[in-house]
């Protein structure tokens, strides 16, 4: 069974750095084609894609947040880590990690088929 | 950024009737080398995470009932539920994955009339 689970602080102060960990199971981060991304969803709003890291360590970032984001992976621990600097109350949201979809024909799709339950992050002093 | 605009924002449909949700992208999400539209649809029920329904604009994900179908091309796409069931009450999102940043529509809330 493929699962993802996020962990991190629930409350962050403005200007602090947020570090989130995504623990994966049921698949390997080093398998060709695999990618894990981070997507956040403010309360009552649409999801917002943040970043994606691929099996070959290639990385993609949302340009508007790129200066604040770093995504890394640890294959031995089956973990993906996202750091976001200079947190602001507008960053309050549920943060999800999610796995990139690979279709039955082997095509890689940067849509997300397995999501973690998410971790609620509140930014407040 | 490619802006995804869904219509309507909310929709009420009777059980057994057809539901249609539209998604328009500010630029084409068609990839010429692969000859595919890089467009996905998700369903999000209250208190749950988004569930992938459709990718490549028209391909149903594994386990998705065949009453869900996707259509469209380039910039105009549609998600159709052919016969609405009670369990289909949810918010539906489109997402383009043609170019970074990958972007979602604002969502369409589907309810029972």
How would you summarize this macromolecular structure in one to three sentences?
The complex is a heterodimer of chains A (about 120) and B (about 110). Chain A has about 120 residues and is an all-beta fold.
Classification by helices and strands of chain A: mainly beta
Enumerate how many helices of chain A there are, as a single number.
Answer: 0
Unreliable sequence segments of chain A: none
- Give Rg of chain A in angstroms: 14 Å
Strand content of chain A: over 45%
Account of the protein in words:
The complex is a heterodimer of chains A (125) and B (113). Chain A is mainly β. Chain A has strands at residues 3-7, 11-12, 18-25, 35-41, 48-54, 59-61, 69-74, 79-84, 93-102, 108-115, 119-123. Chain A is globular, with a radius of gyration of 14 Å. Chain B has 113 residues and is an all-beta fold. Chain B has no helices and 13 strands. In chain B, strands 2, 6, 7, 8, 11, 12 and 13 form a seven-stranded mixed β-sheet that branches. In chain B, strands 1-3-10-9 form a four-stranded antiparallel β-sheet, with no helix packed on it. The mean pLDDT of chain B is 97.
Which helices and strands occur, and which strands form pairs?
The complex is a heterodimer of chains A (about 120) and B (about 110).
Chain A: E1 3-7, E2 11-12, E3 18-25, E4 35-41, E5 48-54, E6 59-61, E7 69-74, E8 79-84, E9 93-102, E10 108-115, E11 119-123
Chain B: E1 4-7, E2 10-13, E3 19-25, E4 30-31, E5 36-37, E6 39-44, E7 51-55, E8 59-60, E9 68-73, E10 76-81, E11 90-96, E12 103-104, E13 108-112
Short descriptors:
heterodimer, A: 125 residues, mainly beta, B: 113 residues, seven-stranded mixed β-sheet, four-stranded antiparallel β-sheet, globular
């Amino acid at each position: 069974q493929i699962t993802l689970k996020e962990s991190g602080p629930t409350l962050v102060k403005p200007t602090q750095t947020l570090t989130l960990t995504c623990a994966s199971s049921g698949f390997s981060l080093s398998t060709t084609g695999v990618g894990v991304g981070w997507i956040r969803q403010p309360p009552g709003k649409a999801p917002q894609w943040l970043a994606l890291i691929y099996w070959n360590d290639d990385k993609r970032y949302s340009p508007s947040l790129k200066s604040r984001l770093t995504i890394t992976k640890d294959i031995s621990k089956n973990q993906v880590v996202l750091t976001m600097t200079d947190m602001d109350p507008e960053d309050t949201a549920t943060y999800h990690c999610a796995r990139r979809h690979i279709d039955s024909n082997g095509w890689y799709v940067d849509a997300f088929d397995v999501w973690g339950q998410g971790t609620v992050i509140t930014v407040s002093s | 950024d490619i802006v995804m605009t869904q219509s309507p924002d909310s929709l009420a449909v009777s059980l057994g009737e057809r539901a249609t949700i539209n998604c328009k992208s500010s630029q084409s999400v068609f990839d010429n080398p692969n000859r595919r539209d890089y467009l996905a649809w998700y369903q999000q029920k209250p208190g749950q995470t988004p569930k992938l329904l459709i990718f490549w604009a028209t391909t149903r994900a594994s386990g998705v009932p065949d009453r869900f179908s996707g259509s469209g091309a380039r910039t105009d796409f549609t998600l159709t539920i052919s016969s609405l069931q009670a369990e289909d009450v949810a918010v539906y999102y489109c997402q383009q994955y043609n170019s970074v940043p990958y972007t979602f529509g604002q969502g369409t809330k589907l309810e029972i009339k």
